[in-house]
Queue: 2 jobs
Job 1
Amino acid sequence: MTRTLAVNPTHPEPQAIAEAAACLRAGGLVAFPTETVYGLGVSALDAAAVRRLFAAKGRPADDPLIVHVASVADIAPLVAACPPVLDALAARFWPGPLTVVLPRSSRVPDEVTAGLDTVGIRVPAHPVAQALLRAAAMPVAAPSANLFSRPSPTRAAHVLEDLDGRIDLVIDGGATQVGVESTVLDLSGDRPTILRPGAVTIEMLRPLLPQVRVRGGDDSEGGPLRSPGLLTRHYSPRALLTLYEGPAGAALERLAHDARLARAAGRRVGVLLADDDRLPGLDVIRPPLGAAGDAAAIAARLYAALRELDAAGVDEILARALPALDGLGPAIGDRLRRAAAGRVVRCG
Ligand code: TXA
Ligand code: MG
């Protein structure tokens, strides 16, 4: 049975944190809130426990885990080398929604890194994550606490939806703030590369890393996929999702047309639109998402909205690609494109 421990999100009760830390130290699986999404934690140095975590999630073994530590001082034993810029990055962005990929030390089990010679490391900012890491006093490997290919959980209820009975404990610290996963920044190669966009944007990184680029950007050299988490199977809702790109008017018109056709064919249709997008007189399921200009609000609601559509039993989801927004805009676009897995309609 999975136990739920409700805690105060900003001042978690020490008793609950101690219980969760003891569970982790005993090799248990503990879901906990971070500022991005809920993570499913396990001792990063316990290979058998890490294998149980992969089994609980149904996650393929070739997808590496992020190791979470309480502070930058805890990183040294996990890595083989630290680039000089790490101190400045840590001072600016940690604790926070940034993961860095560094050459790993031999202390990190192969199970954690999927056999790669690098390890992803993050210092989360959420008070519950911080308290848990300090109480556990060890590095904690934690993927998002969802079943493989389901949207990442942003509430404890999402974790239980996917993993009830498969994990030991979930710490319920309420809804997470950011809503999409951390920025993954690879510092192990010749040139700093963003493998996954998140709340720490390329514009924020550039002052410290003038050479930083986004993997898959126009100057990418192709080559083998360095981050298996970038496979499209991640973040896919149960229903097929189609993404409508282009100017708002044209995209909405085409989306409405296709929604009408799907309804006429007797299909249940869900739509993912900004709250101020107008969709006249259609019988579709439409969870609230946030105003079109408010990337932070949309990111915070995105995965909950996808789960609401799945729970409503829709056969398909029609989503409007929001125009290039600042901040979390690229991260939202990235997650929607992956959820669409190539089903993109260009309009206008
Ligand atoms: O915000 C987050 O990052 C959340 C919270 C819980 O911290 N965690 C998370 O973990 O999203 P997960 O496992 O769902 O995604 C981690 C991704 C992997 O799929 C992979 O793409 C990348 O991080 N990653 C981890 N270690 C890596 C490595 N050594 N090299 C390249 N990519 C790595
Ligand atoms: Mg994940």
Job 2
Amino acid sequence: MKSYKIAILAGDGIGPEIMEEAVKVLKLVEERNDVQFELMPAAFGANAYFECGDAFPEETKAICDQADAILKGPIGLSHEESKKIPIDKQPERGALLPMRRRYNTYANFRPVSLPKGLAHFSPLKPEVIGEGIDLIMVRELVGGLYFGEKEVGVNDKGLRYVKETLEYDEEQIRRILVEAFKLAMRRKKVLHNIHKSNVLKSSVLWNEIAEEVAKDYPEVEVKHILVDAAATLLCLNPGQFDVMVMENMFGDILSDQGGGILGSLGLMPSACQGDEKSYYEPSHGSAPDIAGKNIANPYSMIGSVAMMLENSFGMEAEAKNVWDAMQGVFTDGYSTADLSKPGSGVRMINTTEFGEKVLEKLRKAPKVA
Ligand code: NAD
């Protein structure tokens, strides 16, 4: 029997609520398959900071170091609550970026997917959606502006100033592009390279490397597109995209727009892969506005489990069962509160009910040989 250690970082806000449902799914997967999961919960984020003064405590690092994969809930506080934590210790700067750096998880895969049967959740018109939305954003996750040197001070004129550096070397750019080309080869062999080379020198280098890497993948058609134009076209014609690759900050912003065209960030899971270790997390934040109400959509967290099963444990068929179970709940006419308005003809369910319905469906799914 295969055995895997999984670090469970429930996080802040809605994190513990949606993680609870994800863990139930993991336990059912364990029952249904010849596999054992050792779940190792650990504090991470604002909750960890308030407990011990560190958003990414040493104990959590040790647990994550041992783990075969990390399942992470969203972290962070509301704008006002964040002020209770010194800037450099706040969850993103104090935990999230250090984790990405520690495990060098440079490749972030963010599926933006809405089968035709769920198209009613999207704010886009049916004629724009066509056969549904099915694209994946590949975001560079450990470089660029978010990781560059920062300087804050007062300049010669006595004015407060800030300087942040966007830095990439060719190796960092090449490795993420290679991941994107490999993914394009497994999908439709079309790659949209998102850049801003009309303004940013970093994009000029990015595009040069893209052209070099493209020579190794002659079957992939590469389409270069400015990030601002990509934002518009995601709304006007998402069907033209399949694999989109981009640097860190562009990916942060465009992928939230991806959640927008689906109807909710609650439909956005993700995989953050390094050469040695990967972690899996919803693309969204801790949603402080709805935390503690049992109304968050756990699709993003359970979808992150499905991505972990497939990418870290090679359990493709069971991962597909998990996706099908989640989508099946929606096609049965149910909806979580983020996706529909009351009175829109759907049956509203809360976080726990969604989780239970996924389990019911998964119990009935064909067992994987
Ligand atoms: P957010 O992503 O938490 O929420 C944006 C909107 O989407 C809110 O209206 C929220 O209710 C809704 N939403 C998000 N996930 C949902 C779900 N699963 N079900 C239903 N609705 C959902 O963004 P924010 O409010 O700007 O940020 C809150 C905190 O999260 C901040 O501290 C931010 O820094 C942090 N954050 C963390 C991560 C991460 O852990 N990787 C990512 C993004 C933001």
